[in-house]
């Protein structure tokens, strides 16, 4: 059985990736939610007890008295793929595309992450979109449309939810919070992701969380105004 360490469901976009993948593919695990302790890096001394980088997510696999930690969302996905063939698409072309799109998300879209942080329960009207944010959103939209068209949808690389969808799942919450300007095909994909049972479970738990991190809250509103907050007060 795996142990998956994550942080706040409302804020932790990196945590959502392996969590939603494992839920969607029905890979069993014990969830350990470790709330952030405030500010970037503040949780390090707690997280380092189970994660060598002091960051979440971290997957711990205990087998025959041997404990293995896998501490990066992409590394976790690849570790799971060694044991579960459905983590990546079965078709070679779709798999190469999915891996490229996943890697692009892992190492790119810096402005989207920075200007539109994940804050599941909030709705924000952006004052305006910076040039860099427009570039990121245009690239995201083109990438999604390409995958949906080429592999036939409703997921990015075909008919099944795979790792590439898990990597873009946090973007679906960002798109919902900030009403990102997307094509009809991409908007339909966002709605499809948000409606998945695993995404609904994550979202409802996020709304119930009592924690409010001032850094995340300030970041959420740095380019816009709050129009709604669906979290439990
Ligand atoms: N590249 C890592 C990034 C992980 C990461 O940045 N995690 C953040 C949470 S979303 C974290 O643990 N931050 C700790 C802190 O802010 O104290 C991955 O893909 O897992």
Percentage of residues in strands: 5-15%
The small molecules bound here are: glutathione
Highest-level CATH class of the largest domain = Mainly Alpha
| pLDDT averaged residue by residue | 97
Roughly how many Å apart are the termini? 35 Å
Shape: globular
Tally the helices: what do you get?
A: 10
- Structural category is alpha+beta
CATH fold node name of the largest domain: Glutathione S-transferase Yfyf (Class Pi), Chain A, domain 2
CATH architecture of the largest domain: Up-down Bundle
Quick gist of this model?
The chain is of the alpha+beta class and 233 residues long.
Question: How would you describe this structure to a colleague?
Answer:
- The radius of gyration is 17 Å and the shape is globular.
- 49% of the residues lie in helices and 14% in strands.
- The chain has 10 helices and 6 strands, in the order βαβαββαααβαααααβ.
- Strands 2-1-3-4 form a 4-stranded mixed beta sheet.
- α1 packs parallel to α3.
- By secondary structure, the protein is α+β, with helices and mostly antiparallel strands.
- Glutathione binds next to α1 and α3.
